[in-house]
User: Fold this.
Amino acid sequence: MAKVVSGFDDIKSKEIGPAIILIDPQLGNNIGSAARAMLNCGLKDLRLVRPRDGWPNASAVKMASGATEVLNNTKVFDNTLDAVSDLNLVLATTARMRDLSKTVLTPKKAADWLTSHNAHGGRSGILFGPERSGLVNDDIVLADAVINVPLNPKFSSLNLAQAVLLMGYEWFQNSIKSKTVGQETERTMAAKVSEREYFYERLESELDKSGFLYPDHLAPTIKKNLRSMFNRTGLTQQEVRTLHGILTALTNPKN
Amino acid sequence: MAKVVSGFDDIKSKEIGPAIILIDPQLGNNIGSAARAMLNCGLKDLRLVRPRDGWPNASAVKMASGATEVLNNTKVFDNTLDAVSDLNLVLATTARMRDLSKTVLTPKKAADWLTSHNAHGGRSGILFGPERSGLVNDDIVLADAVINVPLNPKFSSLNLAQAVLLMGYEWFQNSIKSKTVGQETERTMAAKVSEREYFYERLESELDKSGFLYPDHLAPTIKKNLRSMFNRTGLTQQEVRTLHGILTALTNPKN
Assistant:
């Protein structure tokens, strides 16, 4: 294990491990257990969106069993978009696809994506929905791909902290493996969520002006499908700039 | 997933999956969470050696979240030897080796042993020690090999149910592997190349009109990059129709 220890210290996991983002978590117990599972796997960036019982939370501290460095650095957000806006790769854990067309990854494959992405300096995060209901489509569309854990189809609902552990475990196994494995093909830096969102909003604004987002009651679905389509492709920063250029050209032709 | 379901039923997991044996478990909560994690992974044979708070246990029922078929079949033993006497292969989870010379397996390697063993009709089980102290040597010596989970060396103590989940997860991935190989994730019909090309040509024609494909010598590169971006996303037929609609809307606004 000695080599693992020193290797682990070298890679500064805080900077390169994925952020864990819990949306509408209900129980402090689960947040604390998730924090413990994260630190077991060397993950330290915990983000909470609208924790039901507020933050900080005494039950979370108790269940974290000493993972205080995770709890002390936990950030709280009002909405999912703010929680992921600095990330370049976002994966969403969900049992059901709910009419969105997204790449579906196993935890192992997802860990490969995260490891490869982090190796190129990008920041990544994994979304987890609330205990009972799971993620809603508005959150899933923000993701580049979804993660589906192959489990007993007759009893597949994982406890929240258990789901966090599985992802952390697969990531950690990769992170100690990747030191001996060759680098992946180089690729350009993925755009941040905030950069993508700015383009989507500009596109929507132009589509609205042109009458495309009509009738009104269909507009939210159209917007969701557009984001889903573009997010799936893992847009680079250069591509987002190109899309802006296209939008400008089509709406303000020079001739 | 339909094929997974039937494959899973076929293998009669109750008979061939490893038994989970908890030695001196203290908290009913943890036993219940372990039962839930087991059923998530299709494991149903739970054995308890000297549960501190007796059995059955109301906290366990609460935390099992409906994994009653595991709890109802749980067997209780006075000592570890009785709990494992019908098994042909016993693995012990432990963080420390305590002066015993044993083969050390990762969870993944352990799952390979279990799967291979079960395929030959043998019965297997995995020992887990009490929450705080872990397994004692008297129990570890009963095992054919020990399992050590590679985790953050500075914070490696896993919650009991989390440890059960990791082993169940690796076992389940192995048990379904052969049945799911070659299966693609179900998704909406991808657009044909000819359908995509027609859209790209229309887009390029509009971009050309608008002056975006200028200067001429860069046009081929811009076109290539656009195709590359859209093709990467695996456009569906519906999405190609949407893109046509967007192009029409942006170039021929209604107002």
User: Anything to note?
Assistant: Chain B touches chain A through 66 residues (CB under 8 Å).
